[in-house]
Specification:
Strand content: 15-25%
Strand order of the largest sheet: 11-12-15-19-20-21-22-23
Number of helices: 18
Oligomer: single chain
Helix content: 25-40%
Mean pLDDT: 93
Structural class: alpha+beta
């Protein structure tokens, strides 16, 4: 890129416009980029001056909430709208007014309770606590402390109560493994929900997930898990997205110590642990959560309609408030330090970025949609602060993923360039495309060019997580891809004892194709929601009044994949083989080679080069197999098959022979210098690897792989050459001639 006047002009800018170097379309919006970055720098500098920097500022959990100090306990809370405040609970005999708090600067209230006479803690471990907030209007409001680290549901009132979590050392989990894992070369995410993570129709636990599910994930070949619904949420059917207590892990699944064991075990298995964090909104529930905590509607959130999401029925944070920034940044830090999470998937980023929250707005890709007065600059600055802080504090480990449907440019560019700082964005158009095709278009009418366009239509310098389906696609009202393909036949016709019906055969074949095509062509990382790796049937639906509070669809039927007499096992094995292939022949990573050779609407064939000399071939035609189908390739040499959806061990017909070596022909075809000819069975896909290069390609590869000389070897060679030169320098012309002849004659005079 150096040498291009445009690139050279912008690349070294330090005012937030360096991102323009690689995207000329950003140039008309340089003032917006500059303004956004300046606001970030201003706030970061202000935090540095007032609080000592982001590292200290983000440790609010060490000051606020209930803290153990020498000689007693101190409770601190920010509640600027409160008139009076009192701490009470089981420790006070539920006397609301026994322990009044004092108001300090900036609306921060505090209370110190000395230890008992015997020196013991005045609030016992696991005892319930509340705070009584007297509003300016005189209302007495019972609230859970905003920084509560654990909350449990009261079986009588069904409300949640905060618990003072302070177990004895013998009951405190002792970490056994690394605090954080380094970022994997290939990010393969297993999206999971602990409560759903079992066969039985009930809420499953952290311990059960640790013992039963983590080993499955490791065996499948994933490198990370992304856990949903960790932050406490009083309404289970919200899927964890209506958070009530931001610093508390969900008590439905167990204790904080159980969650720590889960994460520690995952690290021991080599799995990074990401958290699905919700900082885009909060639950309207004021009895359990932080809404109207101090009696006002504008403490943590915007006032009035600006602070309410009309579609989600939730509250929207005021990212321009100092204490809100402290609360949210400290929340991220808490999960990293206390529970050793390695990264975050930020939910609802589109709602954060724009004042219209994406409601009723159709994004077309016009850059004017991403800059202007409709953009929430305060939210952008918060995102920049969060990403900057996380990557500075955990430079070798941290991964952040932004869920944005708008396509905001610079979302995944470094903050110092003027970007928002995420590492990855979710390719949300890909699953939508598959559902659209499955719902509306027969597969014999699928357009390969349109599919390829959707898979490759992403910002080239911003990493993307590809996926065929996540939890969103399977929610009630929709259904899993497997169920779209096979529907009711999955109930009776998945047995291996008889030949599959046409519907099952078609469904299994297309399910394998859809996953590999999304994986290989859709991004620089890959994600699957738990259960979809084996074609989970039906849909996801949490217990609610509308379904009789049933857990029937709030579980994962792992028993289906483990049943040797059912075909689910083949779909699961295919998932494992895809990951094994990527590990051995990397193709889903940043800046890997990618070139689409063919996307033919008539033949229904897609072919592309990817990664380390891999050639992917997909025949999506429902009935037509092709003999000696010619496909162009960049690499001259010998090829062999390394992955095949038609193999017998993944429920294929075994029509492609693995022992055949394919030799390229040095003739131009499809714009590539060489071509190969393959047999392409209908509704199958294969991956071929050029294991032996020839010609110029081989010579170039030889130079690339030749080992570099060490410093010691270079020094020894230099000394040897200098010694020989010194020796020759002292010889006469006749002596030199005689010595040269002697060397030429093999040492003979």
């Amino acid at each position: 890129m150096r040498g291009d006047p445009h690139f050279d002009y912008w690349v070294d800018k330090k005012d937030g416009t360096a991102v323009i170097a690689e995207d000329r379309y950003l140039e008309p919006h340089q003032d917006a980029l500059r303004y956004r970055y300046n606001k970030f720098v201003e706030l970061k500098n202000a935090i540095e001056q007032a609080e000592g920097g982001l590292e200290k500022f983000s440790r609010g959990y060490e000051k606020f909430g209930v803290q153990i100090e020498e000689g007693g306990i101190r409770y601190t809370e920010w509640a600027p709208g409160a008139k009076e405040m009192y701490l009470f609970g089981e420790f006070s005999g539920w006397d609301r007014y026994k322990y009044p708090m004092e108001r300090g600067d900036f609306g921060v209230w505090s209370l110190f309770i000395p230890n008992k006479e015997d020196g013991s803690c005045p609030i016992p471990h696991a005892s319930k606590i509340k705070v009584c907030v007297v509003s300016q209007g005189g209302m007495h409001l019972d609230r859970n402390p905003a920084w509560s680290s654990f909350c449990v549901q009261n079986p009588e009132s069904f409300l949640y109560d905060a618990q003072f979590w302070n177990p004895e050392p013998k009951w405190t989990y002792s970490w056994q493994h690394a605090d954080h894992l380094p970022r994997p070369d290939c990010l393969r995410i297993y999206e999971c929900h602990i409560g759903m993570g079992g066969v039985e129709p009930r809420v499953n636990t952290y311990q059960e997930f640790t013992d039963n599910i983590l080993p499955r994930i490791k065996k499948l070949g994933y490198t990370a898990i992304q856990i949903m619904a960790i932050m406490e949420h009083s309404y289970y059917a919200s899927f964890g997205y209506h958070v009530t207590n931001f610093f508390a892990c969900s008590s439905r699944c167990g204790t904080p110590e159980d969650l720590k064991r889960l994460i520690d075990t995952a690290h021991n298995l080599g799995l990074q642990v990401l958290m699905d964090v919700v900082h885009s909104h909060a639950s309207c529930n004021s009895m359990d959560g932080i809404n109207q905590f101090d009696g006002t509607d504008h403490q943590y959130f915007h006032e009035g309609e600006m602070g309410r999401h009309s579609l989600w029925d939730s509250r929207l944070f005021n990212y321009g408030h100092w204490e809100v920034i402290r609360f949210l940044l400290s929340n991220l830090r808490w999960w990293c330090e206390e529970y050793h999470f390695d990264g975050f998937r930020f939910d609802g980023v589109t709602s954060m970025l724009y004042k219209h929250h994406g409601i009723g707005f159709g994004f077309t890709g016009n850059y004017d949609e991403y800059f202007g007065y409709h953009v929430d600059i305060d939210a952008c600055v918060y995102i920049m602060l969060a990403n900057s802080m996380l990557h500075e504090l955990y430079p070798d480990n941290m991964i952040t993923v932004g869920e944005d449907v708008s396509g905001m440019p610079t979302l995944c560019r470094p903050v110092e360039e003027g970007g928002l700082g995420f590492d990855y964005r979710l390719a949300m158009a890909i699953p939508d495309k598959w559902i659209e095709l499955l719902e509306k278009v027969p597969d014999e009418m699928w357009d390969p060019k349109n599919i390829v366009h959707t898979l490759t239509n992403r910002r080239w310098n911003e990493k993307t997580i590809a996926y065929a389906e996540s939890h969103d696609q399977a929610l009630v009202g929709d259904k899993t891809i497997a169920f779209w393909l096979m529907d009711a036949e999955m109930y009776n016709n998945m047995t291996t004892k008889v030949f599959p019906s046409p519907t099952i055969e078609r469904g299994i074949a297309l399910h394998k194709i859809i996953r590999l095509l999304s994986y290989a062509l859709g991004g620089e990382g890959y994600l699957t929601f738990m259960g979809n790796e084996f074609g989970h049937p039906e849909w996801v639906d949490f217990p609610r009044a509308g379904n009789g509070w049933s857990y029937q669809h709030a579980r994962r039927r792992f028993d289906l994949a483990d049943n040797e007499e059912l075909r689910y096992k083949f779909l699961q094995l295919w998932e494992q083989q895809m990951h094994e292939c990527e590990t051995k022949f990397p193709f889903c990573r940043d800046r890997t080679h990618q070139y689409v050779v063919l996307s033919d609407i008539g033949d229904k064939v897609i072919a592309f080069e990817k990664g380390e000399r891999l050639l992917f071939v997909f025949n999506m035609h429902p009935t037509q197999s092709y003999t000696d189908y010619r496909i162009g390739t960049m690499w001259a040499g010998k090829y062999k098959i390394v992955l095949d959806s038609d193999a017998g061990n993944v429920d294929g017909q075994g029509r492609v022979h693995w022992d055949v070596i394919h030799q390229s022909t040095p003739d131009e075809w499809m714009g590539r210098p060489n071509y190969l000819q393959f047999y392409l069975p209908a509704r199958t896909c294969q991956v071929y690897h050029c294991f032996e290069l020839e010609g110029a390609e081989a010579e170039a590869a030889l130079h690339e792989t030749a080992p570099e000389s060490t410093a010691e070897e270079l020094s020894a060679t230099k000394d040897s050459v200098e010694a020989e030169a010194s020796k020759l320098k002292g010889l006469k012309i006749s002596d030199k001639k005689e010595e040269i002849l002697q060397v030429a004659n093999g040492g003979k005079k």
